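Figure-free illustration: sequence to structure, shown twice.
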Amino acid sequence: MIDVVGLKFANIRNGLNENKFTSEELVTAYINRIETFEPKIGSILEFNKEYILSQAKASDERRKAKKELSKWDGIPIGIKNNICIKDVRTTCASKILENFISPYDATAIEKLKSKGFVLIPGLNMDEFAMGSSTENSAYKITKNPFDTSRIPGGSSGGSAAGVAASFFPVALGSDTGGSIRQPAALCGVVGLKPTYGRVSRYGLVAYASSLDQIGPISNDVEGASDVLEVISGLDSRDSTSSSEPHSEFSSDPLNLSGLKIGIMMDEGSSWEPDIKNKFHQIIEILKKQGSIVKELDFSLFANSIPIYYIIATAECSSNLSRFDGIKFGHRAKDVSKLEDLYVESRSQGFGAEVKRRILLGTFSLSSGYYDAYYGKAQKSRILIQKKYDEFFESVDVILQPTSPTTAFKIGEKTKDPVQMYKADILTTSVNLAGLPGISIPAGLDAKGLPIGLQITGKKFAENQILALAKSLSSIKEMEIALPKEIN
């Protein structure tokens, strides 16, 4: 039996192509691990062993016939449950979509299928991607494989926890304000949010349309670059997708000597001491290798959390209006009036956090408050975009911790939404500016919990941040071993 713990994406790709193992052998090993540890982690909403194995067997048949679809044919990939897969239940971890079977594939899924990836659907998440801990799922709470009393981050907690638990080597998540990078950081894996428009959003159930972006979470940098290569590109079904050309996304190491790195120091003392110390340690290593480090003024970004939540909740109140029990979603029974049908269907279908965000968004868009809140937030968003442009006139990339804390205890912040929202304080500004960002493992804190380092680049500079991530991942002080046993 293949030992899948610690088997990196690149080794899996090479092993399949060199016929060291078959896709069925590989996928069977992952299925055995899922069946052993999934009850402790809770990362998958709907596990269909036959569906997964049938794809692996089809891949092996193609290889036998010398008709493999690509160099990735037969590699398993987890899929967050807000990305549509034809004939698969897509709930967004919400009761309102409990019985929704998607009649079509998202563009990203079409592209993965065309290359022969083996899909593992239905990964848990915060309901409609609203949350930072995966405690807002209507079905189960996902736990962190490094410490199951703690959260895995969110909203792509099922994707990050599944990769960290070695249930699959790579997964797709979605990132609206940090929902790929923050859980990747808290689970000790790699998470990439591409430039807005790099990946089609067609088939991604919308939360906040001007911020959402699909991206990979992987157990190494090569997995993130390979999957990005597959899912990128212009899509006529998504008018916000970009025509920016792309070929291969290389993850060859970047020469650190002479690289101009902008850094953010801890002005507000919100970072945990171990995170601060680790960040300073990494900066000193980079200086010794010849990088030029420049401290940047992030004081304008102090308001990125309120700006983000005003814009995101406004867009969510609009996007989720379609789930009314008539056009889409759960329909309440035994209701005689039309107005009551709307109210009861949405009251029964949506969870508390989704209702909170719909109310916040409806308020900021309402007559008399639009200019004071939504209009002002949009103007502030432009200032943040201009500030990033100014930064990138003098530096090549920006380094920050991904999260101010490591994984916190389950239930620790659920009664204080503002404290929960602050978990995304270092990631939301990247979404507001539409930039690419990647979180990579940066060692452990004193409690043995993963720390994440975030690299932000210019628009469509994924190659550069992937190359830097590759260089940094070879630094011994940043290495993290994924847990073999999960207790």
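We now fold a second protein in the same way, so the two outputs can be compared directly.
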Amino acid sequence: MNRERLLNAAVLLALGLVPLAAHVMGEPFTITLATRAAILALAAVGLNLALGLGGLVSLGHATFFGIGGYAMGILASHVQDYEPMFEWPFLFEGSTSMPLIWLVAVVVSALVALLIGLLALRTSGVYFIMITLAFGQMFYFFSISWSRYGGEDGLSIYVRNGFPGLNTLDPIQFFGLAFAVLCLVLLGVRLLARSPFGLALGAARQSPDRVQAVGLDPVRLRLVGFVLSGAITGLAGALFADLNRFVSPTMFSWQTSGEIMVFVILGGVGRLFGPVVGAVVYVLLEHWLGALSEFWHIWLGLLLLAVVLFARGGIVGLVAGREKAHD
């Protein structure tokens, strides 16, 4: 087993065992921190699929994160308010079922990613970045003006949604659910990266002309990668909204897109566990340094600067050395 695999196993083991220890010691706040890290890592894994494997620098992934959050908020709020979501062609009163909410979040995020990708992939480089950023801001300002679902004040959900067989109000059970979803998505991304599609997508990132010369369409490959990436980030948004039992336009903001990008760069772009390491480090810095100073982002900026200048492979690359992407 090489160093990167050992590091990946250690990270996964630590992320799983720390909340269990906190549960035994009766520290639910630590479990909530670990849950937040797992969900943010899931969002970053989604971006890493587009960025690390497909070479698509998206500054609009908060769009999908917010869509996932509002999918949860809208469906649950109708049940909470006893007001049907629609009555034609059939009566639908909303839902507090996590599997159904996740399905809606994934499908709607994927459809929006398809529309954005069809337009944005007509360009490349800085124009692609600007188009994805513009879509994020459009959704942000739309959500601010959408007074039916809270407008700029956001939308509170008083009871966490349910998952069959689990008490999701129990912090350790909700963490276990988020952790299991993260592990399944990591496994799926690993298999995808090694599949013919993943190899073709990686080749399209490195040399689109050569990919086209062998009869493959690099734009179509990137579009499929972008849609999958958006769907994963949308799923993370639904979980994040359930963790906080609150959704707001902030989930669509460019700052949120930037934070998800920071997770990936900190941990290591293109590394399978890079987003997980980046999200965990971010949450720890936010908790520890945030308690010392409200200007803790200065230290985060210095760390990011050091990673960009001296550790191009991120923290995973610094510890494990140069390895193939998604090894």
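Summary for the second example: The CA atoms of residues 157 and 245 lie 5 Å apart.
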